[in-house]
Predict the 3D structure of the following.
Amino acid sequence: MLARLMKRVLFVLLIGCAGLFAQELPEKYAPFGQLIITSFDTAPFPHPLRAQGHQYETNFFSAAAHYQDSDVVLFIPKGFHAGRKTDFVVHFHGWGNTATNALPRYHLIEQFSASRRNAILIVPQGPVNASDSFGGKLEDEGGFQRFIAEAMRTLQQRKIITSDKIGQIVLSGHSGGYKVISSIVAWGGLSDHVREVWLFDALYGNTERFVVWFDHHKSRFIDIYTDHGGTTDETENLMEALKGNQVPFFTSEETNATTQELRGNHLVFLHSALPHDEVPRSNRAFQRFLETSALDAIRH
């Protein structure tokens, strides 16, 4: 009984600290642009499939502690120009993480700002500090379309955009973020708007969904993988299958790939010597992918 009470007290303290940390983020990132943290009805969680929590091996993640946070982070970079359509980059964090922790941990705002792309960054809250790749409502049929529609309404209400037209969408995911992205491109409802998919050491499975998407849409697919992140076999199998079907692709060491090579290839496979958790940050890959993307640059 005492042990359970102590765990509960610790949980409340941690949640309180996380709340204070989230409140400080808009001020922290004000030099780069406007950061909004708000609740969405269409956010991944809560979701019926996690109403009883989730068991992973010997660890149990309760619904109350890990699947009730409906917060979504939106970042509007300085110089953003609201146009006829609005472009988005939607990034999904991996296991054992939160949306607000992923921002400083991987320097997402700094990299996004430095790329000077005229787009809005969205980071939805997935499972809170859990060993779970489930994307909640964003894995439901049409769930992503409803999510982006709510993002558009939120931005319109705050006078950030005036148009109701969705432009290009980039889906970016680290580690366990692959699963929700694979569902989005398969049945999320906006596949024709998804111009790029970036997997940061994240190709663990559902590969056939990505293949169907990039085969039909001719958009850019980037898979960056490491030796010890658990993605090597899946990546090499995909490259072998593409080679066997005479589908052209570009492969290189991450640090050797040039801007022209990143920009000019439809399918890109990059091997990284970095540890798994450093892939989105240490070589500023997130920024490089943004700079070589189809997204427009901010006008001076």
